[in-house]
Write a structure and sequence with these properties.
Distance between the termini: 31 Å
Structural class: alpha+beta
Number of helices: 11
Shape: globular
Radius of gyration: 21 Å
Number of domains: 3
Helix content: 40-55%
CATH class of the largest domain: Mainly Alpha
Number of strands: 10
CATH superfamily of the largest domain: Butyryl-CoA Dehydrogenase, subunit A, domain 3
CATH architecture of the largest domain: Up-down Bundle
Largest sheet: 4 strands, mixed
Amino acid sequence: MAYELFNEEHHLLRQSIRSFVNTEIVPNIEAWEEDEGFDPGIFKKLGKLGYLGIPYPSEYGGGNKDLMSEMVFVEEIARAGSGGLTASIMVHITMATALINTLGSHEQKVKYLVPAIKGERIGAFAITEPNAGSDIANIQTFARKDGGDYVINGTKMYITNGTIADQISLAAKTDRSAGHRGISIFIIEKGMPGFEVMRKLKKMGQHPAGTSELALKDVRVPRENLLGEEGKGFYAIMKVMERDRIISGAMATVRAETALQLTISFAKSKMAFGKPIASYQAIAHKLVEMATEIELTRQLTYYCAAKYNEGKDCRKQIAMVKWYAAEMNNRVCLQALQIHQDLGCTKGYPIERIFRDSRVGTFVGGATEIMKELVAKLMEL
C-alpha cells in the first residue's frame, strides 16, 4: 500500500536522481572517504537540476513539490552509500535552508534562499554546543543588542558543513532568562569578523561531512540577519525537525537496505563446507529477519510521511519513526558485519563504511531516548 504513495512524476524523478547519483557520486565515494571531504561543486550540480529546491516555493526557484518528492530524493542519495555526503546535502536542505524558508522575510529569501537552492551558497545549521544537545534550552551562545546590530559570542560543536558553509542558520539566546522562549535564529555569513572555524572534527564515520567546531567572538550581525522575530527560534526548529525526522527515517531505511543487499550478494558467493553460506539456515534466517525489519520500518516511515503530507498531526509517529529507524539500521548493519566477518571490518569495503556511518543515527537530530520520552508524553503516560 505504501508504494502507491508515489505517482508517475515521483517515479520519473527517482530515475533522474538515480542516474545523477550513479554518474556524479558513486564513482567518487571512495576518494571522498579517503580525503574526508568532497567536491563542493556537487552542490551546484544538484542545484542546476533543481534537486536542492524540491520542497521550496517556485517564487524563489524551488520545485514546490510534496514531501514524497523529497523522500524520493533522499532515498536515492542515501542509496549511493556515503553517509557523510548524504548528511551534508540533507542538512543544507532540511535544516539550514528550511529555517530560512520558514522564518525569513521576502528580502532574506531572495538573499539567502535563492542561492542556496541554486547550490551557489552552502548552508549549515548550528545549534549544538559542548553542553547543549538534546537540551536546546541550555544553549549558551548569546546575542546582545548593540544599536542596530547584534553582537554574538559562543561556541558551536559537531556542526555538519561547518568547514564549507557560506551561511549558517545559527541559534542563540537573545533572552537568557526565558529558557527556550529566548532562542532566536540568525544568519551568520562566512568571513564575518570574529567568526572562526576552530577545527574539523575527526569522527568514527560520515567522514566527508566536514563536521566542525565553530567559535563566535564579538561577531557583529546586522539586524536584517535575524530570521523572524526574537524568541521564536525554538518553535521554528521544532517545526523543521518534524520533517527532517521523517527524512531521517527514510535515510536509515535505505542505508539498512543497502547493507542487506550487499550481505545477500556476499552470502550467495561466500563458500563454506562446499556450499554458499546463504544456504545455511543460520544465515538465511538472519537475512530474513533483516529484510522484515527493513520492510516494517519502510511502511511506518511512508505511513508517517503520508499523514504529514495531508497536514495531519503525526508528532507521535514522527518520533517513533526517528528512533525506530535509527535503531533498526544499527541492528541490521551489525548483523551484516557479522555475516561478512573479517571482510566487514576491512577499510575500503562498503559494509564497513555503512556500519560506521549508521552509528550517529541514534543521537543526531533527536536521540533515541528523547524520542521515546516524546512518544510517552504524547501517549499521556
